[in-house]
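JOB MANIFEST
job_type = single_chain_structure
chain_count = 1
residues = 242
[input]
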Amino acid sequence: MLVAIEGIDGAGKGTQAQKLLDRALKEGYTAKLLSFPQYQVTQGSKWIAEYLRGDFGELNEVHPLFAGMLFALDRFECKKQIMDSLEMHDLVIMDRYVASNLAYQSARCREGGDDPMKFVDRLLSLEYDIYGLPRPDLTLFLDMPVAFSEHLISERGARAYTREDKIMMDVAEKINIPPGRYDIHEENTEYLHAVHEMYYQLIQSFDMAPCEEINCQNENGVLRSKDDIAREVWSAVQAKLQ
C-alpha cells in the first residue's frame, strides 16, 4: 500500500510521515518511508536544489514545465526503489509525491492566466504514464492555513539545500549572519496561497483521489497538536490497511 502525505510548506508532512512510520512498525506492519526530493541522492534533486536556491532565476523567471520535469525526474530515478519497497513492505509512505508537483507547478499557471488543469494533465501523463510511477492507494492532505505555515517556516529557518557551501554556512553562523535564504517557494507568501488553493482544486477534480483531508486546526482556529493529527492520520491509513 502506497500512502502519500501532501500539504504546503510548513504543514508538518515530514513529522507526520515519521509518526506514521513509527506507528505502523509498532502495530506490526512492515513499512518504508521515502521523502521527495531525494536530496544528495539523485541527479534530479541536485538540479532541484539549484532551482530552489534561485540559481536558475527567480520564481517567475523559471517555466513551470521545466521545474515540473525536474521533480518528476527525481522520482523516476527512484522508481526501482519505490517498486521494490512496495513488493517488500505492507506500507510505503511518501513525504511528498506526485501531487506536490501538480499543486506547486500548476499554481504558477493560475497566476499567468493559463489553464492550470491542462497543465496538471501534462504532469500526470509524465509521472504516471511515461515514467510509469505507481499511483497512491491513499493521499492524505494536511490542510494547514498559510498563516500557520508562514510562522512554522520562519521558526524552522533556511533549508540545507539553500546553502551552497557548508564551510561558508559555518562561517556565517559564527559571525551571526543568517545562514542562507528560504527557498523560492517558501519565501513567496502569495505563491503559497495559490498552491493551497490548487490543492483544493486537485481534490475537487479527483486528481488526488482517493484522498482524505486532515485539518491541522481545530474548530476554534487553534493549531492541533502533532500527536492529535497523527492519530487521525493513523486512523485513515489503518482503515485502508485492514
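[summary]
The first strand starts at residue 2 and ends at 6.
The mean pLDDT is 87.
exit_status = 0
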